[in-house]
Amino acid sequence: xxxxxxxxxxxxxxxxxxxxxxxxxxxxxxxxxxxxxxxxxxxxxxxxxxxxxxxxxxxxxxxxxxxxxxxxxxxxxxxxxxxxxxxxxxxxxxxxxxxxxxxxxxxxxxxxxxxxxxxxxxxxxxxxxxxxxxxxxxxxxxxxxxxxxxxxxxxxxxxxxxxxxxxxxxxxxxxxxxxxxxxxxxxxxxxxxxxxxxxxxxxxxxxxxxxxxxxxxxxxxxxxxxxxxxxxxxxxxxxxxxxxxxxxxxxxxxxxxxxxxxxxxxxxxxxxxxxxxxxxxxxxxxxxxxxxxxxxxxxxxxxxxxxxxxxxxxxxxxxxxxxxxxxxxxxxxxxxxxxxxxxxxxxxxxxxxxxxxxxxxxxxxxxxxxxxxxxxxxxxx
Length: 381
Known about the structure:
With about 375 residues, this protein is α/β, with parallel strands linked by helices. It has helices at about 5-15, 30-45, 55-80, 105-115, 130-145, 190-195, 215-230, 265-270, and strands spanning about 90-100, 120-125, 150-155, 170-175, 200-210, 235, 260, 280-290, 300-305, 310, 315-320, 325-330, 350-355, 355-360, 365, 370-375.
């Protein structure tokens, strides 16, 4: 997955380094050092769960904007592949981004759906400074394509935010903003139902949270509540409608989160010099909830919920299935042309299996005649 080049160039213009490359680093030394210092301070605030996006806006924009944008694009890519009838033949999509900040979420949705329809973007945020930056970017976006319209509103993000909403949206997005509404360990199902009432009959809600245990398990519990009440449908990340296999495993020590590989742009690699952060993976937790149950592109497929684990004499990974978490193992001696795709499995991939040996209900072994096919590779774009 790669950040679109024109988006990368716009980011560089906004942070004051329009021509940055590896050959002219000395020209931007002062500016680079300033943003790196801001990134250090920003990390300290995040560690204390304190907001500092406005105080260190350039560092936040340079580091978080591209990553948050790509997270949303990865979700859209997966949604459109697994549920190909999502918004098919729509002439216009109406999108609402709650807590839009600098616009990374709505930009990611736009870029994910731009080829399919005209798009109307609405963003709510309480920060005047973040909305000003978002407005600057949307001017560029409207010049980039004529099929987009944007409306930005300064509003407090609260549980009553939808009480006066009369418009119906195809997509409502909460990208790292539900924490502003629910500080406790539970996201109220009643609130989610209220949000869905503001979507069209085929509308969806996308919730993205940090890949931390607290936030991830909140989404896992929310998913469980939705399934039990049967008032709506969870489309992603799960491919089944049963209890989450990780919800009760190991005394609630597990949590479901994504780790998607991507190719960071050069300017992020340059900024990361001396900081040594792990920027090669997009890490997040998410749910996609809908009013209707869309048909999948495939009938049989399992979600890989771990990267490939390499051990002496074997390789293994874990799958999410309707009957629980399954350990999938291939002994080195069983490697063959039919199962060689196993070597390419990454977390988040959807795979198909044929002729598997079920040693135990939650322990499956790959034989030489086992056929493995990666139906959807999350890290490819």
